[in-house]
Amino acid sequence: MTVKFGEMEHLEWLATPFLLAYGPPGLAHNRHCLRLLQQFEAVQTFNLVLLACLPANIEDMDHPHYLIEEMVRLPDIRSLNLFLFTNGHSFGASSFHLLRMRTGIRKLGLVFDSCKDVEVATTCASGCICDQPTNWKTEELVLRRLQDIEIQFLSGTAHDFALVEQLFSWATAVKTVTVSFNRSITGSMANEFCQRILGFSRPEICVKFYVYRPHK
């Protein structure tokens, strides 16, 4: 079955099914999602859900491949929202790949999610493929038009902070960064995380923090 889209010069919002970051090459599910993206030239807001892999543990897969590099183009985007189902894995490489294709975005949202409880969640084993390729840590990326970053449900793993730190360096014109933490983060942990994030920031950036406080 073939579905054809007419001209949509002013598409306001687009969301696709989830994409797997790692798995067998040429995965049919990812291929169908990427084919959908190729139908659009521009969109105001694009929501993209990224999973490390299926099953949830990369360690359970045989020779997984990095699949996000199969995405070679994105529509012209004004606002990008990335929903990252991390499960302790890094999405630095995937985020870098996507942002490098659309350096003109004005607004970026990062929504962290995990199937694990934050209290027991840890980063994956050393040498995990999720940290590959490592060029996102060293190559230059300048997001000159990005002015607003919103980070939701940050759990504070080493991988999460590594990505957040890079965002501050990439977003050279950012004006506002809003951060909310996972509900399991205690007040003392939140204070520590706030100080750490402020260490990445610059004086001209307005950084806002929101901490969940359960009703007593």
From TrEMBL:
InterPro entries: FBL15-like (IPR055312)
Highest rank taxon of the organism: Eukaryota
Protein name: FBD domain-containing protein
Species per Swiss-Prot/TrEMBL record: Brachypodium distachyon
